[in-house]
Write a structure and sequence with these properties.
Chain lengths: 329, 329
């Protein structure tokens, strides 16, 4: 059961619910986009976006020091280029904007088209493409490189840089460094929910879990019977270790994320397991958050994001207090 | 499935998980209690507590301007009086403390015994008893008056007062006023989870919802087939209206709370419905939050709390920014 009304009204009603709960966000007509009403147009505005159904991403990260605006589309479907352009125009009169985009074909197409439209109108437009998912496709053995929860750390680091006056070329360089250093992998015990559909995006045998799923319920790379939280942590960390090839005393930030249907108790048990295993790897864990950051509409599951802290400024940026609905200072 | 390890280790491991994620909390040995490590012993310390399984309550509200400390017991079981005393002694050298307690017999007994122990040692001890649940027992037709999500608003208002120098008699008077003005009622589509138990605290027919449940999965007052989020909002608001007997232009704070297993999209749809219906009642909704504040370990459900704002200082207190893991400024 989903606690909604008419399924085709769910998103519009949820957006109104967000408006009541967060009057500090101003919504742009004819879009599911919102911006920080305190924004003074004195820095490069950062805009992130994508489908709805990932709350608190991305509207929950709008606020001084993080995103200037977020623009969502329908559930699991990105906004149109026209909607992205409308939000950019509502935010700034200075014809400059920087987009943070998750690496899904439809998202890249929409933001790319918005970029082209704005550039044709004389705007300077930068873009970060986040492709942190290290899940591997079973058939091609290629990494899927979808954009998932690591995107939130990209918001945070670029947000601090933009607040400190970074130009679009500076943000572009920084985005390349950060997106190359951030990797995520997830696991789920249930699929994502779609309003009006009784079936989740995938179904598992009772007691099975699925490694490497995507945030819209895309398939993972292996199913197996659930054994323990620690076993999940071992699997995800072994994949991250292979990808990072880390050495003792390397410095990392860690983000443990609920995919939306995981109770806080389970999240914190898993967080414990992750931390114990990473300590056995003798890593320096300079930054560590666990919470509900980027979800798959009710999916019972978790993702683990790690960011190699190549630059001490990144840690400063992660720790900078911000005022947003969802980032925990 | 619950994503944990050995069930009898779940709580201890979750507490370690919280420690990694929130190094600003200092934990008291031999307890599941923690305090704000920045506390300077320059105000009356506020301590709330109760069973675990309600995260982010109560540890998530520890921080300057809200709680000084929180002391949890096992899942859905309060801490012992000895543990409460230990936490109070760890927090302050000034022999003064104020407890915020949810109205369950075991909680009241444990905190009452801790109060007596400390008073015998020369402490000044105040206590607020929160009994906001307006759910009615079917047999006796008495209000159950359990302490539920309204407790978080009591933390917030008393937290601001304590920060501003309120004495224990002042906090006692304020607590009486605020607890008399706050009322909550909940609804669920699933029971609460207990580590190691396959069955939730209650089971419903598929598609049924249960009005008036408690935060440990205690029974409610009526089951019926789920129709819509709006129908849930109508039922809960009708009960609150009967209890408050409100008039147009009365001023209220509203807290819409996920019981732990409700996706953000559903929470915000319900929040929309609540707000529309309250506006039809012509109330002045001066404060409005929706989120995950006090949970029933994974319960798919919602609660609605309203606080009649009898004093403009209460609204100022609710809006005061604080630094805690879970309160959204």
């Amino acid at each position: 059961m989903q606690i909604i009304n008419e399924p085709d009204q769910a998103l519009a009603q949820a957006v109104q619910g967000i408006q009541w709960a967060h009057p500090e966000l101003t919504w742009v007509p004819e879009t599911y986009g919102c911006y920080d009403q305190r924004f003074k147009d004195d820095q490069v505005p950062l805009i992130a976006g994508g489908g709805s159904g990932h709350a608190p991403a991305h509207w929950g990260y709008v606020g001084r020091g993080m995103l200037t605006a977020a623009v969502m589309g329908p559930i699991f479907t990105p906004p149109t280029a026209a909607q992205i352009v409308k939000v950019a125009q509502a935010v700034t009169k200075k014809k400059r904007v920087f987009f943070i985009v998750k690496n899904f074909p439809a998202d890249v197409a929409a933001f790319g088209q918005a970029q082209a439209t704005l550039q044709a109108a004389g705007w300077e437009v930068g873009m970060a493409l986040v492709a942190d998912d290290i899940s591997v496709d079973n058939a091609s053995l290629k990494k899927r490189r979808r954009g998932v929860a690591g995107t939130v750390l990209v918001h945070k680091i670029l947000g601090a840089a933009a607040l400190n006056g970074a130009t679009i070329p500076m943000l572009t360089t920084l985005a390349k460094q950060v997106t190359a250093a951030v990797k995520t992998i997830g696991v789920a015990a249930s699929g994502a929910l779609l309003p009006g559909q009784a079936q989740a995006s995938f179904t598992l045998q009772p007691g099975d879990i699925y490694y490497g799923i995507g945030i819209h319920g895309e398939p993972g790379y292996r199913k197996e019977p659930f054994q323990s939280s620690e076993r999940l942590a071992q699997e995800l960390i072994s994949k991250l270790k292979l990808n990072f090839n880390w050495q003792p005393n390397d410095h990392y930030a860690v983000l443990v994320n609920s995919l939306g249907g995981t109770p806080p108790l389970e999240l914190m048990v898993f967080n414990h397991d992750v931390h114990e295993l990473l300590q056995l790897n003798q890593l320096q864990l300079d930054f560590h958050k666990a919470g509900t950051f980027l979800t798959s509409n009710g999916m019972h599951g978790l993702s683990l994001t790690m960011l190699q802290l190549a630059d001490p400024d990144w840690l400063t940026a992660l720790n900078l207090p911000v005022q947003t609905p969802a980032w925990p200072n």
